C-alpha cells in the first residue's frame, strides 16, 4: 500500500510454536502491495529464508515501514480492564467455560459460551494496544466451485446496517486499522481486524459482524456475479467471456507451478474428505456454481452456532460481550456445528503415485523442468502438543536452514534446482509432511525419490549433530522470546494458532502454552539424547507410514493454450445455444452490471460507515528516539527502546566504489557470505554457530532514489540480532561473515544460481507486477536501474548467462566476489544502527568499537557514478499465464510536479476508488494499484492477475479526467486523510522502529520534513485533487508501459495498436 513497505527483516514473523507456514489460504485483497520499498528491499537477503519459509507470511495490508513517517500510534491510556464476573456475563447471555492466565503471552484468557446459540468466544486481555478481533466459521466445501472463497469476498460487499457496495473498501479508505483482510482456508474462513485506536477498533468490529451475519450478497445476485463469475458479452456480435474477481484470482493461482503442486498434494493426500477439493475454486469448476448453492452455504455455515470469535488486547472485556450479544441474541441455535465437522481421512494401506502436467513456457530445456515431491499424511488422529512440538523441531532440524541435512543433501545432489513444497504442515486436521525438488531432469526423477528416502533413513539411523540440535533449539527459543510478528499484530498470530486446534473442537488454550512442553522436550533431549527423541518420529511418521503419495509434475508447453481453447469452446457452445433475444439480453445485463459497478455510492449511504474525526488524529508524528554519535570515526545511530533484552543492529556499507559490471553479482555475493564457510569452518559449522549464538544474520542490498538528489542511495545492509548478553558473539560473527568467508566453493555457488533462478521465475509468474514495476523504474531512474539489475528481468537474464559461465570461468567469478568485498568493506561511509534499551546500548558499545577497528579505512577502487538506465520503451514480457500484470509509469517531478503531502492522500484515493472500481470490480482483475515514490518522483499504475491488457492501460489514462471530474464531500475527504495517516503511522514493533529510523537517515528524511508532510496530508483539499490531475496526465502522455502477459494477449495488443509493445521472452 501507499507509503508502506515490507521490511524483510521485520516480516520474520516467528510467531508461533514453530515458524508455521501460512496455510494455503486465500485473501480477500490481493496480497502483494506494490509499495515502492518492497521492490527494493526484497532483493536478495537469502539469509532470512528460514524465517520466510516458516513465518506467518501474511500481510498485504499491514506491511510496515514507511520511509516518510514511521512511528507507532499514540498509546491509549486506559485503566486496567475489569473482567466480567459470572453475573455480568450471564446477564449478557454468556456463560464462562474456562479462565486461565497464560504466561507465554502475559494474558488473561477467558472462554465464554453464548448460551442461546452455543457460539464460543475467546476473550484475551493484556496491555497490547494493537487490539485484534476475529470471527471464524468452519466452512468445509464439498466441491471445487470455490463457494467459501467467493463468499468470503462477497460478504464484505454490503450488509444490513452498511448497505454500500463495499463497506470493506470504505474501511480501507478511512480507518486506522493495523490489519484488515479476510482469508479462506481449506476448511474455515477467517475475518480478522486490528487497530490500536479503540473507537476505530469497534467501528471495524461492527462492520465485520454485520457483514458476516447479515450480508446483502445473499439477496443480490450481482455481487455473486461480480466476485464469483458471470458471462460477459459487450455486444451480441462479440464472443462471450467469463469475468469475476475470484475467477481471475484463481486463474493466477493456477498459473503457478508451485501452487498447482500444493493443491494436488492436499487433494491427493486426502481424497475422501473435504480436503479433496479446492476451497479457493478451480477456474474450471467455478462456473458451475449457482447462486442458490451459494446462498444455502451462507445460511448453513455463517451462523453463530458455527462461529468462533476472538478478542485480544487492552480494551474493556465487558464491552466485548455487550457488542457481541447484540448480534448473537438475534439467532437461535442451529445444527451447523455438527454438519460442518471435518471428517478425518483414513490412512492408506500402501503408497500411491500421481503424475500431472503443469503449464510451462515453450522456451528452455523442458526436460529439466520436472518437479517431484514426496508427501505423507502423518496421522489419522490429531497429535498431542508434545509430539507436534517435537515434529516441528524435527522439521527445523531437517530443513530449516541451508545447513540442515535434508535440505543440504538435496540441493547439493545437483538433481534439482530448488526445494519445493517442503516441510511439516500442521494447521489442518491431520498434519502432513512433504519434501521435494523442482527443476529436475526427466530421467532423474527416480533418483530424487531414492535420495529423499535414503537420506531420511540415514537421519533415522544416525541422528543429528549436537551442534545442529543446539542451534535449532536456540533459534526456536530466541524466536519465541522475541515474539516478532513483523508487521502483523501479535494478537492475530495468537488467534491463528489457537484456532488451529479450536476449530476442530479441541482446546483453544493449549496452542498458546508452549513453555512446559518445550521444557519437557528439552529435558528429554538432554537425558535421552536427540536420537532417541527424533529417530522414532522419522520411523513412525515417515519411513513406516504407508500413507505416502509421490507426485511428479511434468512441464507441458501446450497446457496453457489448451486450457484457453477448452474455455473458448465451452463459451462458444454457450453462445451457440442462446437465441438472439437472449444474447441481446446478456449484452444488456453486462452493461447494467458495469453501470452499477461504476456508479459510486451516494454520500448518504457512505455516511453510515462509522469513521473517526480529524480530531481523533494526533497532530504530530511520534518520533523514534535517535541519538547520533560516533565510534572510532564511524557514525552510530542509537535507538533507546524496550526490546525485551534483545539487541538489533544494522551495519551499512556504501556501494559507491563498486564497478557497474559487478552489480548483478551482489545478491549472490550476499548469499555467499552467509553460506560458503571460512578457512576454519565449513558453511554448516558457520551456520550452526550463528544459530547457536544469535537470532540470525542477514545481508542484502538496499537502493533508493533520494528526494532532491541525483545520486541514488545504494548500500549493503548487514542485519543481526542477539540477546544483549551475546552481543560480542554477534559482532564477532558479523565480522567473520564479512571478512573471513572464502569464495572458493564453486559447487555451492552453482546451487545459489539455480535457487535464485527458480525463485525469480516463481516471482515472475506469481508477482509479475513487481517485475513490471522494477522494469519501469529501471527506465526512469538510476536507483531503479540498480535494483532491477539485482531483482528484475535483467537479473533473470544475468543468471542465465552466469549459469553458462560458471564452469568456464569460476576463477574470474570468484575474484569478482572478492572484488565486491574489498570495494564495500571500509569504515569510510559505514554507518551502524543499534536498537535496544539504553543500558544495553551502553554495555554493547565496546563490541561495536572492536568490530569497526577491524575494518579497512578506505575501500579499494575509486568512486563510481550510478546513472545507468534501461532504454525507455513499452515492453511486454511473455510468460505462460492465464492472467496478466499491467503497468504504466512516469516521473512526475520531471513534468514539474512539486512534492506535497496531499499526493499520498490522492494516490490512495485513486487506488481505492477509480482503480478498484474499474480495474478490479468491473475489469475483473484481482487488484489494481497506484504508487507514488516520493523519493524518485515515479508515479506508477499496476494491475495484478488481470484478464485485460490495453483496456487496463486505457483506464490508467483516464485517471486525470477522473480527478478533474471528482466531487468529494467533506466526509469522503476526511476519510481519505485519516486512511493516509493510518498508513503513515503504521504500527511497528521496536526493531522495525529502529530500522525505519535508519532508512530515513539514509534517505535524508528529517523529522521536520515528516511534520511538514503530515500537515500537508491533514490539510489536503479538493483543489489538490484537481491540481494533481495534471501530474497524472503526464503519466498518460509521457509514461512508459510494461506488461507481464501471455503471448496471445500481447499479440492481440500489438495487432490492435500496431507494435505498441517491444516483446521480450522471459521463461
Ligand atoms: Zn480471494
Automatic annotation (TrEMBL):
Gene3D superfamilies: Metalloenzyme, LuxS/M16 peptidase-like (3.30.830.10)
Family: Belongs to the peptidase M16 family. PreP subfamily.
Annotated protein name in UniProt: Peptidase M16C associated domain-containing protein
InterPro entries: Metalloenz_LuxS/M16 (IPR011249), Pept_M16_N (IPR011765), Peptidase_M16_C (IPR007863), Peptidase_M16C_assoc (IPR013578), PreP_C (IPR055130)
Record bears the keyword Metal-binding: yes
Peptidase M16C associated domain mapped to chain residues: 553-802
Gene Ontology terms: biological process: protein processing
Keyword Mitochondrion among UniProt keywords: yes
Cofactor: Zn(2+)
GO MF annotation, one: metalloendopeptidase activity
One Pfam family in the UniProt entry: Peptidase_M16
Cellular compartments per GO CC: chloroplast; mitochondrion
UniProt entry keywords in alphabetical sequence: Hydrolase, Metal-binding, Metalloprotease, Mitochondrion, Protease, Zinc
Entry-linked SMART domains: M16C_associated
Organism: Brassica carinata
Location of the protein in the cell: Mitochondrion
Classification of source organism: Eukaryota, Viridiplantae, Streptophyta, Embryophyta, Tracheophyta
SUPFAM superfamilies: LuxS/MPP-like metallohydrolase
Amino acid at each position: 500500500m501507499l507509503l508502506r513497505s515490507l521490511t524483510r527483516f521485520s516480516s520474520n514473523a516467528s510467531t508461533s510454536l514453530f515458524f508455521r507456514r501460512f496455510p494455503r489460504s486465500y485473501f480477500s485483497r490481493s496480497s502483494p502491495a506494490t509499495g515502492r520499498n518492497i521492490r527494493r528491499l526484497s532483493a536478495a537477503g537469502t539469509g532470512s529464508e528460514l524465517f520466510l519459509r516458516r513465518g506467518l507470511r501474511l500481510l498485504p495490508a499491514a506491511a510496515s515501514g514507511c520511509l516518510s513517517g514511521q512511528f507507532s500510534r499514540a498509546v491509549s491510556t486506559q485503566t486496567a480492564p475489569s473482567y466480567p464476573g459470572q453475573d455480568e456475563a450471564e446477564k449478557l447471555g454468556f456463560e464462562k467455560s474456562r479462565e486461565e492466565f497464560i504466561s507465554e503471552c502475559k494474558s488473561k484468557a477467558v472462554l465464554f459460551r453464548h448460551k442461546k446459540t452455543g457460539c464460543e468466544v475467546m476473550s484475551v486481555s493484556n496491555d497490547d494496544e494493537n487490539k485484534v478481533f476475529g470471527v471464524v466459521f468452519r466452512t468445509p466445501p464439498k466441491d471445487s466451485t470455490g463457494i467459501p472463497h467467493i463468499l468470503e469476498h462477497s460478504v464484505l460487499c454490503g450488509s444490513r446496517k452498511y448497505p454500500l457496495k463495499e463497506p470493506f473498501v470504505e474501511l480501507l479508505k478511512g480507518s486506522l486499522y493495523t490489519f484488515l483482510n479476510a482469508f479462506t482456508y481449506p476448511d474455515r474462513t477467517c475475518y480478522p481486524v486490528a487497530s490500536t485506536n479503540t473507537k476505530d477498533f469497534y467501528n471495524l468490529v461492527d462492520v465485520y459482524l454485520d457483514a458476516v451475519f447479515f450480508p446483502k450478497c445473499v439477496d443480490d445476485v450481482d455481487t455473486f456475479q461480480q466476485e464469483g463469475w458471470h458471462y460477459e458479452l459487450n455486444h451480441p456480435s462479440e464472443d462471450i467471456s467469463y469475468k469475476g474477481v475470484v475467477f481471475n484470482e484463481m486463474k493466477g493461482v493456477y498459473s503457478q507451478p508451485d501452487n498447482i503442486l500444493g493443491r494436488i498434494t492436499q487433494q491427493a493426500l486426502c481424497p475422501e474428505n473435504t480436503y479433496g477439493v479446492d476451497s479457493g475454486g478451480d477456474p474450471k469448476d467455478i462456473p458451475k456454481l449457482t447462486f442458490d448453492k451459494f446462498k444455502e452455504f451462507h445460511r448453513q455455515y455463517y451462523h453463530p452456532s458455527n462461529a468462533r470469535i476472538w478478542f485480544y488486547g487492552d480494551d474493556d472485556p465487558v464491552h466485548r460481550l455487550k457488542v457481541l450479544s447484540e448480534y448473537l441474541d438475534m439467532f437461535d441455535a442451529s445444527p451447523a456445528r455438527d454438519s460442518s465437522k471435518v471428517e478425518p481421512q483414513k490412512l492408506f494401506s500402501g503408497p500411491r503415485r500421481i503424475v500431472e502436467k503443469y503449464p510451462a513456457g515453450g522456451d528452455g530445456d523442458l526436460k529439466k523442468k520436472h518437479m517431484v515431491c514426496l508427501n505423507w499424511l502423518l496421522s489419522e488422529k490429531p497429535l498431542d502438543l508434545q509430539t507436534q512440538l517435537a515434529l516441528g523441531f524435527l522439521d527445523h532440524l531437517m530443513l530449516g536452514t541451508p545447513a540442515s541435512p535434508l535440505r543440504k543433501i538435496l540441493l547439493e545432489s545437483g538433481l534439482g534446482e530448488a526445494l519445493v513444497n517442503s516441510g511439516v504442515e500442521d494447521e489442518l486436521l491431520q498434519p502432513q509432511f512433504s519434501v521435494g525438488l523442482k527443476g529436475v531432469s526427466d530421467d532423474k526423477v527416480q533418483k530424487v525419490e531414492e535420495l529423499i528416502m535414503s537420506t531420511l533413513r540415514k537421519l533415522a539411523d544416525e541422528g543429528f549433530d549436537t551442534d545442529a540440535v543446539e542451534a535449532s533449539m536456540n533459534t526456536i527459543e530466541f524466536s519465541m522470546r522475541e515474539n516478532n510478528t513483523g508487521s502483523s499484530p501479535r494478537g492475530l498470530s495468537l488467534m491463528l494458532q489457537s484456532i488451529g486446534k479450536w476449530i476442530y473442537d479441541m482446546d483453544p488454550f493449549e496452542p498458546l502454552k508452549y513453555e512446559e512442553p518445550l521444557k519437557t522436550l528439552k529435558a528429554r533431549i538432554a537425558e535421552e539424547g536427540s536420537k532417541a527423541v527424533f529417530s522414532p518420529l522419522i520411523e513412525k511418521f515417515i519411513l513406516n507410514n504407508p500413507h505416502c503419495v509421490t507426485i511428479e509434475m511434468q512441464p507441458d508447453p501446450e497446457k496453457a493454450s489448451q486450457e484457453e481453447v477448452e474455455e473458448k469452446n465451452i463459451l462458444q457452445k454457450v453462445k451457440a445455444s442462446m437465441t438472439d433475444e437472449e444474447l441481446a439480453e446478456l449484452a444488456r445485463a453486462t452493461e447494467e452490471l458495469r453501470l452499477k459497478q461504476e456508479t459510486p455510492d451516494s454520500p448518504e449511504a457512505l455516511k453510515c460507515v462509522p469513521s473517526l474525526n480529524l480530531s481523533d488524529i494526533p497532530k504530530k508524528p511520534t518520533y523514534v528516539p535517535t541519538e547520533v554519535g560516533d565510534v572510532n570515526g564511524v557514525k552510530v545511530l542509537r535507538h533507546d527502546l524496550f526490546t525485551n533484552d534483545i539487541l538489533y543492529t544494522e551495519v551499512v556499507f556504501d556501494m559507491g566504489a563498486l564497478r557497474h559490471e559487478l552489480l548483478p553479482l551482489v545478491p549472490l555475493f550476499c548469499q555467499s557470505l552467509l553460506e560458503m564457510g571460512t578457512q576454519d569452518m565449513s558453511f554448516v559449522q558457520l551456520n550452526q554457530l550463528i544459530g547457536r549464538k544469535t537470532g540470525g544474520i542477514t545481508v542484502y542490498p538496499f537502493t533508493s532514489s533520494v528526494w532532491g538528489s541525483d545520486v541514488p542511495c545504494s548500500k549493503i545492509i548487514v542485519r543481526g540480532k542477539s540477546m544483549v548478553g551475546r552481543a560480542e558473539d554477534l559482532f564477532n560473527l558479523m565480522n567473520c561473515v564479512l571478512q573471513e568467508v572464502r569464495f572458493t566453493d564453486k559447487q555451492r555457488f552453482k546451487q545459489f544460481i539455480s535457487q535464485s533462478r527458480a525463485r525469480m521465475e516463481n516471482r515472475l509468474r506469481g508477482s509479475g507486477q513487481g517485475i513490471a514495476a522494477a522494469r519501469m523504474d529501471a527506465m526512469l531512474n538510476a536507483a531503479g536501474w540498480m535494483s532491477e539489475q539485482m531483482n528484475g528481468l535483467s537479473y533473470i537474464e544475468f543468471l542465465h548467462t552466469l549459469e553458462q559461465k560458471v564452469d568456464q570461468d569460476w576463477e574470474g567469478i570468484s575474484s569478482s566476489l572478492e572484488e565486491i568485498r574489498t570495494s564495500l568493506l571500509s569504515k569510510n561511509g559505514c554507518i551502524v544502527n543499534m536498537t535496544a534499551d539504553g543500558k544495553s546500548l551502553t554495555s554493547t558499545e565496546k563490541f561495536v568499537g572492536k568490530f569497526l577497528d577491524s575494518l579497512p579505512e578506505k575501500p579499494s577502487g575509486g568512486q563510481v557514478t550510478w546513472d545507468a538506465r534501461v532504454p525507455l520503451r513499452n515492453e511486454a514480457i511473455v510468460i505462460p499465464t492465464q492472467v496478466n500484470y499491467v503497468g504504466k509509469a512516469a516521473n512526475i517531478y520531471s513534468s514539474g510536479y512539486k512534492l506535497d503531502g496531499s499526493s499520498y492522500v490522492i494516490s490512495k484515493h485513486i487506488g481505492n476508488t477509480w482503480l478498484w472500481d474499474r480495474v478490479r470490480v468491473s475489469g475483473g482483475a484481482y487488484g489494481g494499484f497506484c504508487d507514488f515514490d516520493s523519493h524518485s518522483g515515479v508515479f506508477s499504475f499496476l494491475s495484478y492477475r488481470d484478464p485485460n491488457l490495453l483496456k487496463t492501460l486505457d483506464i490508467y489514462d483516464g485517471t486525470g479526467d477522473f480527478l478533474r471530474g471528482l466531487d468529494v464531500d467533506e466526509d469522503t475527504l476526511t476519510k481519505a486523510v485519516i486512511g493516509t495517516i493510518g498508513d503513515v503511522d503504521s504500527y511497528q514493533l521496536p526493531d522495525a522502529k529502529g530500522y525505519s529510523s535508519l532508512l530515513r537517515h539514509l534517505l535524508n528524511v528529517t523529522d521536520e520534513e515528516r511534520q511538514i508532510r503530515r500537515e500537508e496530508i491533514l490539510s489536503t483539499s479538493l483543489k489538490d485533487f484537481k491540481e494533481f490531475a495534471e501530474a497524472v496526465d503526464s503519466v498518460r502522455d509521457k509514461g512508459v508501459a510494461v506488461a507481464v502477459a501471455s503471448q496471445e494477449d500481447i499479440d492481440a495488443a500489438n495487432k490492435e495498436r500496431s507494435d505498441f509493445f517491444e516483446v521480450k521472452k522471459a521463461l
